[in-house]
Specification:
heterodimer; A: alpha/beta; Rossmann fold; six-stranded mixed beta sheet; two-stranded antiparallel ribbon; globular; B: alpha+beta; 3 domains; six-stranded antiparallel barrel; disordered C terminus
Amino acid sequence: MDRSARLEQESIYILREAYARFRNPAMLWSIGKDSTALLWLARKAFLGRCPMPLVHIDTTLKIPEMIEHRDRLVREWNLDLVVASNEEALAGGMGPESGRMECCGALKTEPFRRIVAEKGYDAVLLGIRRDEERSRSKERIFSPRGGDFSWAYKEQPPEIWGQYNTDAPPGGHVRVHPILDWTELDVWEYISRERIPVVGLYFARGGKRYRSLGCHPCTEPIASTATTVDEIVEEVRAMRVSERAGRAQDRADVYAMQKLRSSGYM
Amino acid sequence: MAIEERAATEADYPPGETTIVVLGHVDHGKSTLVGRLLLDAGLIAADCLEFARKRSAERGRELELAFLLDGLAEEQEQGVTIDFTLVRFRSGGCSFVLADAPGHREFLLNMMSGASRADAALLVVDASEGMREQTRRHAMLLGLLGVTRATVVITKMDRVDWSEEVFRDLAREGRRLLEESGVTVADCVPVSALLGENVTTRSERMAWYDGPTVTGALQSNIPASTPDDTRFRMMVQDVYRWGERHLLAGRVESGSVAVGQEVALWPGGERSRVQALEAWPGPPSASAGTGETVALEMAGPHLAERGMVLSSPSLSLFPVRAFDARIFWLGQDALNVGDRHRLRIGHQETGAHVARFHRIVDPGEISESVDASSLPPGFVGECTIVLDHPLVLETFRSCPVMGRFVLVDRCRVAGGGIVSGLSPGSRKKDGA
C-alpha cells in the first residue's frame, strides 16, 4: 500500500472506531480542504452516507463563497448540518479589532462550547493535522476534553497499538482527529486522487490564492498561479514556508494557538 | 561501498513507509538528532527554522535543533520533550516517519504511545554519560512492544574527544541490552548531532569509523514486511444494519478476503460465505488485502457483533479463560495480584486480573524484584492472567494483532502486554 492508501485506510478505521464507541458523535466542518477531505473519508467509511451531524461554527466573517459551497454540498450530499454562532458577541460588535485572540475565543470557541453542551455531543471529529502547527503536532488521535473544554496537554492518555481512549471525562467530550498524521501535501494528493470538490478560493485568481482558509480579516492569500488541484499539488511540493504563515492568529503571540487550544479551540 | 554513496532506485525499497521511534534517556539528544536529520534533508520550512532560531537566541543559543520538534511552550522553556510527535523524513529514495519520544521517566506512557507505532528504533546514548536508567528501560520495553530492529546511536561524541574506545564500549553495551530483549541490532553509529557529524554526512573527525551514517543505517535497516502467516483474520469493529442488509465492518489483519470465500466466525466457529465487499464510491470490490478496511455482507443469517473474529476456516481459534503474558505496567499505583482492570484485545473487552506473577523485573536496573505479588509502575512482569469472560486470542508470536492487549484502569490505558502462552503455568516462552 502506498502512503496515500495507507493514510486513507487508517482514517477510515479511526472514523469507524469513533462511530462504534460514542453515543452521540458530531463532525466539525469549516468548509476548508481538510475538513472536507475528512467528510469525504466519512462517506467512504460509512459507504456513501455521513451518519453524524456536521457542525459549522459560523463567525459570519467567513468569505461568502465558502457558505455557498457549504450549502451546495449539504444539498447534493444530503448532509445533516448544524450551524452555530455567538449572536450576542456579534451584536456587541466583536471582531478582530477587539484583539485576535479575544475574537477567536468569542466567535469560535464560545459557540463551539455551547453547541456541544446543547446537543450533548460526547465526541467531536476534527480535521486538524500535526504538521499545521506546533501544539497540534503533539495531539492524540482520541483526545479528551474536560467539562470546561480544557486540554490537559501535559498528561494525555496513552494510545498503544491503536487502542484509543474512548471514554469521555465526566461532563466532557473526546476530540477525534482522523487525519492527524496527514500533511498538507497528503490532503491535496488525496483531493486530486478522489476528485473531492473544494471551494474555489483555493485556486489562483489574479496571481493569488488562499492556501489556508479562515475568517476573512485574518487570512491572507499567497502569490500563486495554481489554477487546478494538480497544479496546487506541484506548488505545495515545492513550498518552503509552512501553511499557516498567512494566518494572523499565529503571529499574534508565538504560543497563541497553544493558549487558544488549551481552553477549547480547535 | 557504503549505502549512502549508492544511488537508490525505487526497486531497492518497499513502496511503504517505515516508522522509526527515537528512544533513550532524558537529555541524551533525541530531539536534537531528529532536528538535525530534518535540517540536513532540507525538510524544515523556512518560517519554522526562523521561529526556532528566534527562540534559541532568546536563550542565548545559536540554534537549538530540538526546538524544531518540541512545539509546546513548556517543552521549550524547560528544554525537555513532554510528548511524542511524528514527522515525515525522506532519504535516498526511502520514506520514513520519525517518532521523537520523550526520555523522562514521568513521560514513559507518551514514549510507549510513540513506540507502539514503530517498525524499528534508534536507541540514543550520550557518549559522555553512557547507559542510564531510561536507556535500559526503553531497550527492554521495545522488545515487549514487538519492535524487532534497532540502530544504536552514540551521540555527543564531541564531548568525549571523538574517542573510538568510548564508542566501542558503549556500542557493545547497547547492542547487548537490545539483543537481550529480542531486538536485532544492525549498526552502531558514533555521531555529533549538534555538529552534524555522521548524521547525514560522514565525519572526518571520526575517520576510524567505517560504518554507515545515521541516514545510511536507516536506509539499510528497513524491516521486511512479509508476514509469516497469510491466513485471513479480521476483527469485527462494528455491524451496520441498514434495512435488510447487515454489513460487518473491520480491517483485514492478515491474509486477504474475497467474494465467495468461506470464513469461520468466532467464538462459535460457525461457517459462512462472503457475499459482497461493499464499497463507496463505485462498485463493490472483489477482494481486499492486509491492512484494508472492509464492509462484508455474509451469506445466510448470522448474529454478528463487535468483538467477534472472522478467520480462514483452516485456523482453529478458541476462546480462552486464562493465559500467560509478559506485561508492562504504567499505572499510578502498583498492579497487585487480584486487582481487576479491563483488558482490551482488538475489539474484544472484558475484566481481568493477574492470578500470579512468575517473575518481576525492573528494566531500569535489569534486576529482579523479590516481591512477586505486585508490579510497580515502570516494571515488567511475567504472569498468568485470568479473564472474567473468555476471549478469542492467539500468542503474539503466531499473530501480533491477536496476541497483544492493553489494561485499562479507570478510563485510561495503564499497561499492556503480549500473550506468551495459552496454557497457563507452563511457562513456555513463546512471545518474547
